[in-house]
Amino acid sequence: MLQFMLLFSRQGKLRLQKWYVPYQDKLKKKVTRELISTVLGRKPKMCNFLEWRDLKVVYKRYAKFHFCCAIEDTDNELLTLEIIHRYVELLDKYFGSVCELDIIFNFEKAYFMLDELLIGGEIQETSKKNVLKAIQAQDLLQEEVEEMQGALRELGLV
Fold first, then answer.
1. N or C, which end of the chain is more exposed by having fewer CB within 10 Å?
2. pLDDT on residue 83
3. Which of 138, 62, 145 is closest to 94 using CA atoms?
4. Contact assessment for residue 125 and residue 112, using Cβ atoms and an 8 Å cutoff
5. Phi and psi, residue 5, nearest 5°
């Protein structure tokens, strides 16, 4: 089971974090800082797995992002790499070629995609097509709500 997932830039800026196990805020910040510096300090040719405390850390660099997951020591590292890759494919499919600004300005979409893919640290949906359908349905619903709010404003009801 995934304990948490972090997405950060090459400069060490945290762009997305999802915690599946409760941690205190102070500990979250410490863990995040420690892992970002550890992962960024590793050479590109080094293994994408490392043992950290009582967990395994699996990370992968895609373009300007590092995706980092912590898993229990009994979990499969290759499956975790596949989950990271599937998430990157979803982001690329939705945003075109995903860049840092897409994540910054559309972080709610990135979280929604992650929530459609994983629940409670376990894979929920393996089909990219089904995840993208859910996201498109969410987009349509959001557009309808915004149109209704605009119409209500025009009528002076809001």
1. C
2. 95
3. 138
4. no
5. -130, 135
CA neighbor of 7 nearest in space, from 93, 83, 96, 116:
83
Cβ-based burial of 13 (10 A; exposed 0-12, middle 13-18, buried ≥19) = exposed
Per-residue CA distances from 65 to 38, 59, 61, 105 (Å): 15, 10, 6, 15
**48 CA to centre of own chain:** 17
pLDDT tens for each residue of 98-137: 889 999 999 999 999 999 999 999 999 889 899 999 999 9
Report the distance separating Cα 66 and Cα 38, nearest Å: 12
Residues 19, 129: Cα–Cα separation, whole Å: 25
pLDDT value of position 63: 85
Number of residues that this document lists for the chain: 158
List all residues 6 or more positions away from 124 whose beta carbon is below 8 Å from its beta carbon.
Answer: 116, 117, 118
In sequence order, the β-bridge partners of residue 59 are 68
Tens digit of each residue's pLDDT (9 = 90 or more) over 29-41: 999 999 999 999 9
| CB neighbours of residue 65 within 10 Å | 20
Looking at residue 126, its pLDDT comes to: 86
Q: Are 56 and 81 in contact (CB under 8 A)?
A: no
